[in-house]
Inverse folding.
């Protein structure tokens, strides 16, 4: 694999963890409907427990499949497991931080926040995964450039498949 393909391979669990909650979408919101001191919802109805754990599970499953396909990339199964867990958890936490910020600036649930929606989950996933397996600065830059396009493409697809009510 060349350096750029390796970067996409590395980040794959984060992409799946970020995209799959739309399929799992649950009922119980992670903030339990509670409001923050500003009177707005802490996170909003778009962040559910089922979506969170479904995303975590999917991301780890992708990591396990990746290990079967390319064990040399990880060195050991435990690294593959830890890496996919860190990438998935990071992606989901980044998404929650994004929703928290959006609610604070008064954006309604589902409203697109350009930048935050595409980079928040990515940066958070990279930070959590970095201590487990590093990538080069060039690979990080490449992911920063391509992820917004992949995010956009995945959301249009989810909209066309009627998984999402809006194409963003
Ligand atoms: N979702 C979920 N649980 C999560 C994340 C997402 O159930 N932890 C589901 C919700 O049904 C959500 C959909 O996936 O509406 C799309 O996710 P996203 O675009 O991140 O949420 P938004 O609805 O846009 O909400 P927000 O404005 O808070 O980002
Ligand atoms: Mg959204």
């Amino acid at each position: 694999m060349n350096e750029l393909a390796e970067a996409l391979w590395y980040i794959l669990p984060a992409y799946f963890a970020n995209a799959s909650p739309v399929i799992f979408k649950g009922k119980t919101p992670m903030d339990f409907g509670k409001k923050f001191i500003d009177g707005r919802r802490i996170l909003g109805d778009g962040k559910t427990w089922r979506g969170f754990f479904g995303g975590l599970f999917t991301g780890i499953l992708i990591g396990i499949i990746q290990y079967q396909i390319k064990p040399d990339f990880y060195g050991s199964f435990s690294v593959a497991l830890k890496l996919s867990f860190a990438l998935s958890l990071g992606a989901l936490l980044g998404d929650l931080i994004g929703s928290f910020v959006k609610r604070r600036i008064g954006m309604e649930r589902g409203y697109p926040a350009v930048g935050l929606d595409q980079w928040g989950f990515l940066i958070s996933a990279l930070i959590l995964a970095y201590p487990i397996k590093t990538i080069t600065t060039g690979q990080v830059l490449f992911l920063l450039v391509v992820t917004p396009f992949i995010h956009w493409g995945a959301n249009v697809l989810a909209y066309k498949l009627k998984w999402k009510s809006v194409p963003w």
The helical segments are 3-19, 21-24, 49-69, 71-74, 77-104, 116-129, 137-160. The chain has one domain: 3-160. The pocket of cytidine-5'-triphosphate (ligand 1) is lined by residues 21-22, 25-26, 44, 46-48, 51-52, 95, 99, 102, 109-111 (CB under 6 Å). The chain has a mean pLDDT of 96.
